[in-house]
């Protein structure tokens, strides 16, 4: 009972201790993610030129041998704790929903080391997903050390994830919105304040190291005249198709890996070394394919380095294949940077076609390519608001907000009409609950759910709804008012349910609750 009263008091107000803990999370995230960025960039800077020299038998042998060794080391560390595999974002979302619990003392060093190996070796992977997981486990660690109640420690996990993405991209507001829109899946005031405090603190620390310039800092930028806005509709359709291809390719690769592994039981070292070896061979043949693909965004800004239209199309599909191979294998690494690189390539290709047909001027190639990144993000991740804010922050080009909004809306709609499941949602579904974790959980915990428009619960009385058997609704928060629930209370969209449930039932109850409180209406 004492635990219940402690957690219930925590829901009544947002206390200063939690606020300062969120700032502490931001400090640690800012330091660790900045170090992560520095190490990865140094490795890429020094390893990239290795692929640019003449092809000799000795050099090919040495490169493949080194990459094989790195792949073995990376796979072995990943095997010690499977929670460090892949992007890390599904693991954070799964912990927030009660499906698993990461050991932050293991995940933090293991994820850092393995991602330095994958990213520093030039694999087609990015640092943002790992930064989200690293930030999340830092938040979890701060909560453990400070003995934060379980009902509040979830906010620190979300705050760390927001700070991780914000620090990795130098885009704190996008980090906050991503955490709210994709991970926490509601805009709880407590979660929002925690995420803001952590993300802004982390970005401030990163700014002391990297400066305040955006990641993509382009000069001589031309705005898009209104008479060409019709082309944005075309771009939105293309990006909706491209983002859906991204989702299908990566999920297919994951499923193919699972089927092959179940059928042939290939050893772990095969899956961990194959992407390293293939990447080495491909980059030796064409060094342009080295790295996440972020450098390809610059093609749109400088015609002297931009390949031909045919080569752009070739690079796009090869990058999709390399990314799918890396993700299918389960190697630690993110997809945001490759995703934005693919978006820029697809936008560049679309703009080049427009220039060839004479419907747009060549000056529009750069803005179209930048806008396309937001469309790719919105259609693949299905987080349109984050897509708009992310590109606005990493380019600092406010004149693009309206064009970005148009492309994001169209691309999101196209992806919904195609019925392709968002990448992270599909990955989280394939991430089975940790049964051992669920079985050993004891005690109860307070949880919070937000009722959405057109959900099963919207407009119904509390007594009319079949809630999970061991889920007790304690109160309903509507705006600044909080009421003890009675069977006749009519629930409305925007209400927050405060519930009390056994920890062991968290994963199962979360699935049932999502079916009750999430929006039911779909496109199509």
Show the helix and strand layout.
Blueprint: H1 2-12, H2 16-47, H3 57-80, H4 89-96, H5 104-120, H6 128-145, H7 150-169, H8 172-184, H9 189-210, H10 230-264, H11 268-285, H12 309-329, H13 336-357, H14 365-381, H15 384-395, H16 401-418, H17 423-430, H18 435-440, E1 444-450, E2 472-478, E3 481-484, E4 496-502, H19 506-517
Antiparallel strand pairs: 1-4, 2-3, 2-4
Mind explaining what this structure looks like?
There is one protein chain. By secondary structure, the chain is mainly alpha-helical. The protein has 19 helices and 4 strands. The chain has helices spanning about 1-10, 15-45, 55-80, 90-95, 105-120, 130-145, 150-170, 170-185, 190-210, 230-265, 270-285, 310-330, 335-355, 365-380, 385-395, 400-420, 425-430, 435-440, 505-515; strands at about 445-450, 470-480, 480-485, 495-500. A 4-stranded antiparallel beta sheet has the order 1-4-2-3, sandwiched between helices. A hairpin with a 2-residue loop joins β2 and β3. α2 (about 15-45) packs across α9 (about 190-210) and α15 (about 385-395) packs antiparallel against α16. The protein is globular. It starts with a helix and ends in a 7-residue tail after the last helix. The mean pLDDT is about 85.
């Amino acid at each position: 009972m004492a635990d219940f009263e402690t957690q219930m008091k925590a829901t009544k107000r947002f206390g200063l201790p939690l606020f300062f803990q969120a700032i502490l999370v931001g400090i640690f995230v800012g330091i660790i993610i900045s170090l992560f960025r520095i190490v990865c960039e140094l490795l890429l800077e020094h390893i990239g030129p290795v692929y640019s020299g003449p092809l000799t038998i000795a050099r090919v042998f040495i490169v493949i041998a080194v990459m094989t060794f790195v792949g073995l080391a990376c796979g072995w560390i990943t095997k010690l704790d499977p929670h460090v595999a892949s992007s890390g974002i599904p693991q954070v979302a799964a912990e927030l929903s009660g499906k698993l619990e990461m050991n932050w003392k293991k995940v933090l060093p293991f994820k850092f080391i393995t991602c330095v190996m994958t990213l520093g070796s030039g694999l087609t992977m990015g640092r943002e997903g790992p930064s989200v997981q690293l930030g999340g486990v830092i938040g979890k660690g701060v909560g453990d050390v400070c003995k934060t109640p379980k009902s509040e420690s979830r906010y620190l996990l979300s705050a760390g994830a927001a700070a991780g993405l914000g620090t990795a991209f130098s885009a704190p507001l996008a980090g906050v919105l991503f955490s709210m829109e994709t991970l926490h899946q509601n805009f709880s005031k407590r979660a929002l304040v925690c995420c803001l405090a952590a993300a802004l603190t982390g970005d401030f620390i990163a700014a002391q190291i990297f400066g305040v310039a955006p990641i993509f800092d382009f000069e001589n930028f031309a705005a898009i005249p209104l008479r060409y806005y019709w082309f944005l509709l075309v771009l939105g359709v293309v990006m909706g198709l491209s983002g859906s291809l991204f989702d299908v390719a990566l999920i297919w690769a994951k499923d193919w890996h699972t089927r092959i592994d179940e059928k042939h039981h290939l050893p772990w070292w095969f899956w961990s070394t194959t992407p390293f070896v293939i990447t080495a061979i491909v980059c030796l043949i064409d060094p342009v394919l080295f790295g996440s693909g972020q450098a390809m965004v610059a093609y749109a800004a400088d015609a002297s380095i931009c390949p031909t239209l045919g080569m752009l199309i070739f690079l796009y599909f090869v990058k999709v294949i390399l990314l799918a191979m890396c993700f299918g294998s389960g190697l630690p690494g993110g997809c945001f940077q490759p995703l934005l690189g693919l978006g820029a390539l697809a936008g560049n290709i679309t703009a080049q076609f427009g220039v060839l047909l004479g419907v747009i001027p060549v000056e529009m190639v750069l803005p179209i390519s930048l806008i396309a990144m937001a469309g790719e993000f919105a259609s693949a991740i299905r987080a349109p608001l984050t897509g708009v804010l992310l590109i606005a922050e990493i380019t600092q080009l406010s004149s693009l907000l309206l064009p970005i909004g148009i492309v994001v809306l169209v691309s999101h709609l196209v992806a919904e009409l195609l019925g392709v499941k968002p990448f992270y949602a599909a990955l989280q579904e394939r991430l089975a609950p940790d049964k051992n974790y669920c079985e050993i959980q004891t005690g109860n915990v307070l949880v919070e759910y937000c009722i959405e428009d057109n959900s099963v619960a919207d407009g119904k009385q509390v007594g009319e709804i079949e809630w999970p058997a061991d889920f007790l609704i304690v109160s309903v928060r509507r705006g600044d008012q909080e009421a003890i629930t009675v069977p006749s209370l009519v629930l409305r969209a925007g209400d927050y349910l405060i519930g009390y449930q056994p920890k062991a039932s968290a994963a199962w109850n979360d699935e049932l609750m999502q079916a009750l409180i999430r929006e039911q209406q779909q496109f199509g």
